[in-house]
Amino acid sequence: MCVKPSLSKYLRSHKGIPRDEREFLKCLHDCNLETGRMMTVMSSFYGEECFVPYDPKAITNLRTSLRKDNKEWDIAETVAYFAELKDKDPGFYSRISFDEENRVEHIFWVDSAARKAYTEAYHDCVSFDTTFLTNQFNMPFAPFIGINRHGQSFMLGCGFLRDEKEESFTWLFTQFLDAMHGLQPTNIITNQYQAMRNAISEVFFNTMHRNCRWHVMKKANEKLRPFLGRHPGLAENFNECINESMSEDEFEARWADMIAKWELAEHETLLWLKKYAKYWVPCYYRYCFFPFLQSTRRSEGFNAVLKHYINPHNSIKHFVKQYEKIQQRILGKECHNDYWTDELEPETWSPFPIEKHALAVYTRPIYHRFRLEFALIGYYNVQPQGNNFYQLVPNNEKCYPYGARYYMVNANGGQFNCECCKYERDGLLCCHVLKVFTHIGVDAIPKQYILRRWTQGALETVVQPTVPAKDDVMPEESRQKLRFANLSTKFVALAKQASSSDQHDAIARRHIREMTTEFAQLNKVKRKRKTTSASTTSNAPEQSANPNSNRTSTSAPSTHQKPSSGPTRIGPAPPPTTSTRQQAPRSAPGHVPTAHATGVVPSAAQPAPANSQQGPTTPPHSSTMAHSAPSAPTRQVHPSKKKKPTEPDFPYVQQASDMVGPSEEAMVILDPPRSNTKGRKKNRYPGGIELQAKRTILCSVCGLPGHNSATCTNSLKG
């Protein structure tokens, strides 16, 4: 017997989680909360953790059981869930590829809202990257990331690949192109993978492809930091060559001067950087649209968001469901930006009319980017250079991010072109052109320089969520969980007050008895109403179908069955639910019943006969049971207490055209093998898009490098 009541939860007889709290913990599990965080939430309800009637191990076991239920039939449930999404959203697109052993090889899906947004406005720039450890099979996750009218990242499709080979990327890009009606992205930015580059050149042959500068500099920093530490000034010279070169010829000249100055003609790393310079040096794609990015940080940032929704030990189906939540979050943030743009009007930074015009035409996040650029006009002075030419001279040492160089603006024929090419790169005018506008008295942004994708009219029609429209009312089940959480917190506070004295305890117990009595009466009334309603519902169809039911019939029962209003099933009828039913043998994990072209699968325990014909079938009861008199209302059993079948009957409604495999005949789908590819390292370097010299340690005594104060000769002399 436990001395302390709070220790009783460790006894075997007292272990277990109440049903209401179990449902609440499932909600927390779906939100990807860790066990420790879940225990903290429950501790706030009970007042202290020692008062919680179960320990963290019980929560861990609950989460393990939830994952186990999802893992056993992962691929089959994922395919069935894709079919459900297809029913809700007719524009939903999904494809699955199989290998020779009928194991899942690749998966790709995208909803109709993303397809519509891509084809109408947002196909001009796509970020693509792969990340690992997002599901139980360690399959690389490959999202396509776009940029909407608010400058916000959103998903244009997702895929799972078995590996990062060229064939895998080719399959994924082909499916993406098919989903987007053959419209290739104008520009795409990816990691520096040769397999990915080959696949893009084969599938997206009209697309401008560039590599992520951050990944290139990451590799360069790993090899060059010690070398740069021994050559002070080389890192600054290298960064100036990359950042301040406005043309390919200027870059080539600067690079040649740097190589000759530091005698680096045979340096392998620099030769490698120069070989692939056209894929990552900014001057090679200065006229290409890559708004507000020089790396795949759009994808990297999206991968960081995934960590809040995805647990790498969960199933692929769970990942697909979390994908929907992420899309809903993105849509909610987009609605917030729409309200911010349409309903609120902030104060402008300056009294210039051109800024007020920008506030009126651009979305609010894009206007703020415009305002940051417009604030840089004070760093330059305008010097006219002949007819319709203006030179912008910095009045400070440097103007970030343009440096200390001069810029020339050509204003010939109503066109304003700056050699920095910010408008071609970001879709917004640069501070140099804006400075010229204020100098010559242009009070509004010319129409040809207002990019439609940065306005509220970017899409012809507003993209609606993929789920059916519902009223803003919380479901009753969710309201019950919310009431449980709120009442738990309030009752804990009341319990602390009731335990302060015997008088407080007596008052609390009296009210508890009264509430218990009232709850029992209320439940009795509810059960009576429920029984009456069920009896009326069951008697009405019988009386309408057989008005002479009070007479005794001596004829044989008819075997004719009324066709079901649900989906047509192909194959034999399911076995009768009688006590003599044979238990179906359990198949191996990953097995799915044979798939037919119509999308419905017979039970695996009873294969369809060869002469089976399509048509309505009998319900899962014998003919005698179908014509028996209605029985008395039975006690309702909670779904969680019902016995689970030995083998689930998945409604395999995926069309045969959605499957890409060795054969179009019926197949048995198997789970993919666990990938042996490990996750990438998380090494980060300050100023990731520039080279950084290794830090030089200086002696605190003499101030010279190469030693510290313990080995300094000056300190030894002292």
Describe the structure.
- Helix 7 (194-203) links the parallel strand 6 and strand 7 (208-211).
- The radius of gyration is 34 Å and the shape is globular.
- The longest helix has 44 residues, at 502-545.
- Helices cover 40% and strands 8% of the residues.
- It starts with 18 loop residues before the first helix and ends with a helix.
- Helix 1 packs across helix 3 (56-71) and helix 6 runs parallel beside helix 7.
- The chain has helices at residues 19-30, 35-46, 56-71, 74-88, 112-120, 166-179, 194-203, 213-229, 234-243, 248-262, 268-275, 297-306, 316-342, 353-361, 364-374, 422-426, 431-440, 476-498, 502-545, 623-626, 713-717, and strands spanning 93-98, 104-110, 126-128, 141-147, 153-160, 187-190, 208-211, 380-384, 389-394, 407-410, 417-418, 659-660.
- The chain is α+β, with helices and mostly antiparallel strands and 718 residues long.
- The protein has an eight-stranded mixed β-sheet with strand order 7-6-3-4-5-2-1-12, sandwiched between helices.
